[in-house]
Amino acid sequence: VHSDHIALRGMHFSTTVLLEGSSNVLLQHVVMDAGASEEAAVHFQGQHQSGASHDIRVEDSTITGGGRTVFILGSFAPAEQWNHHLSFLRNQITCGSHNCFQISGGRDIVIEGNQITGTGTAGVLTAGATAITVSRNRLHGMGGPALQIASPGMEWDNYAGVENMISSAVTIANNVIDGWDNGVQLDAATGISIVYNTVVDGTGIQFNHRTPHDQANNVILDGNQAIRVWNNILPSIALAAGESRPTFESNNVVWQDGGGGNGLITMDPQLDMTSDYALSAGSPGVDAAVDDADNPLVDFDNHLRGTKPDIGARELGATELSCP
Fold first, then answer.
1. Which residues pair with 102 in a beta bridge?
2. CA 206 to CA 223: how far, in whole Å?
3. Residue 238 near residue 206 (C-beta atoms within 8 A)
4. pLDDT value of residue 2
């Protein structure tokens, strides 16, 4: 509590690592194992008097077990009061009994380059989050949604401050996803960018229709809005009744059903199973991505994409970045 400018390296924790009102903390090469406990392995507690935590990096570490394995909890208040500027880089994360990540009051968060293994629950759940980047992760699941971008569930309708808890401005890019029921599940979110992902099985993107309400019974958000989907490999796209197609939808490979937009490819993507779902040379996704100002410059492997990028998370024959 109220700790700052601390670096923890090479340590092993078998109970919750709790950060409350803390800042400028580095957790590096740390093992955090909550086991069968229902408590989190790493808990950012932002609801108490000490306030939110910020400027914290968790990298090259192992995080496993517990209920919500990484739990970022903030007040039902404007985003300025949430936990913020948190980075999770290159970690090995195994989900506990609930979710690998739950962000309920977090902003300016990067989840990048992690190996996330699911156990039947959500890989990353946002329910009150903004300015979130989920990129270059390998997500392997056992059911549930890999990424669930949501407003709080119906049990929170009419709860004080729930109008602050919309998930918005989330970028999902360059992830390789298999073994989950849904690659991306949207439950009343806005301003979501989904680009360059490879979803191998299940439903690629599931649009669910929710209309969360505040205490005055005003609708906070009518379904999912301002959703952009481009340059992805997806088995399918499913829209619940009342949902509209994405605002921008272009150059996706959707080989089962539900695809739409410009440049749609409905052929088998011809993924190479021996190289973790990279494109094979004959894939229709090769050189077929749309050039967009919001395209990430590198792929899942942190390789440059070049001037004729491929659809999906991995660029075929991409050049490795080199240091000067």
1. 71, 125
2. 12
3. yes
4. 83
